[in-house]
Amino acid sequence: MKKILIVEDEKKISRYLQLELEHEGYSIDIADDGAIALEFFKKNFYNIILLDLMLPKLSGEEVCRQIREKSEVPVIVLTARDKTFSKINLLDLGADDYITKPFAIGELLARIRVALRHKKKFSDGDQVIDYGGIRINLDKKVVDIQEKEVSLTKTEFNLLHYLVLNREIVLSREQMLNNVWGYDYAGGEKIVDVYIKSLRKKIDYGEKKLIHTIRGFGYILKEEN
After folding, report:
1. pLDDT digits (tens, 9 = 90+) for 24-72
2. What is the distance between the alpha carbons of residues 181 and 87, in angstroms, rounded to a whole number?
3. In this predicted structure, what is the pLDDT of residue 32?
4. Which positions ≥6 away from 215 have C-beta within 8 Å?
5. In terms of domains, do 127 and 192 share one?
6. Are 163 and 211 found together in one domain?
7. Could you give the C-alpha distances from 130 to 6, 118, 167, in angstroms and in order?
8. Domain at 18, CATH number
9. Residue 82 above 70 pLDDT?
10. Residue 93 shares a structural domain with residue 190
11. Which segments of 26-154 are extended strands (E)?
């Protein structure tokens, strides 16, 4: 049985998550402040950690930093919708993914499954994510497709990184626009389609298609011919 640590100081939320996740067959521990979370982490093995940022005693950011110093356990950050939380913050924290409150339990369960299937890999001290023949070196800002380096613009790199972080999850154009271009971007959502088209030309190989259009919704990155 896979074990999850929920780090959340709002008891209604933590109890709700506990009931839903136990129903899915997970074993659950709950910590309601940052200091207790680290004590749990030191004494137990967890397959994944769900981490709120706004915690008493020790912030979620500090908890994540200390966890990442000792472990590669997947960490999914839970953050309020009105909190500015970009992909850069995500990398700085060392988290694998994040989800904004309020969220549908189905989306969280999907993200948990993805995080459990695809853990980050590290080589030569660099932070690397592998998926579907794509290797993203986050420290060197280098992307290899089928072991061949491809040249991406900064925006293409950030878009690909966001897609890989959210692999196998359908993303709307609005989500991509907010998380790659930023909430203050003044242009329209059509820019997403332009960059998706450009990215497809660079990362698709042979009959292998990785970015798929979900008509009426947006896009999804997954391994499928």
Report:
1. 999 999 999 999 999 999 888 888 999 998 899 998 888 998 888 888 8
2. 10
3. 94
4. none
5. yes
6. yes
7. 26, 8, 11
8. 3.40.50.2300
9. no
10. no
11. 27-31, 48-52, 75-80, 97-101, 121-123, 126-131, 134-137, 142-145, 148-150
On whether both 19 and 100 belong to a single domain, the answer is yes
Do 58 and 35 meet the contact criterion of CB atoms below 8 Å apart? yes
Among 176, 173, 174, 154, which Cα is nearest to 164's? 176
User: Is the distance from CB of 127 to CB of 109 less than 8 angstroms?
Assistant: no
Q: 120 falls in which pLDDT band (50, 70, 90)?
A: very low
Q: Looking at residue 20, what is its pLDDT?
A: 95
**Which residue range forms the structural domain that includes residue 25?**
3-117
Residue 165 and residue 110 in contact, taking contact as beta carbons nearer than 8 Å:
no
Beta bridge partners of 171: 219
How many residues can be counted in the chain? 225
Contact between 75 and 133 (Cβ < 8 Å): no
In this predicted structure, the answer to whether residue 183 has a pLDDT above a threshold of 80 is no
Q: Are 157 and 203 in the same domain?
A: yes
| Mean of all residue pLDDT scores within the chain | 85
State residue 83's pLDDT score.
54
The domain tally of the chain equals 2
Same domain, 100 and 141: no
**pTM for the complete prediction?**
0.56
Residue whose token pair is 């089928």: 146
Closest CA to 156 of 210, 194, 118: 194
- pLDDT, mean of residues 171-196: 86
Buried b / exposed e along 95-122 (16+ C-beta atoms within 10 A): bbbbbbeeeeeeebebbbebbeebeeee
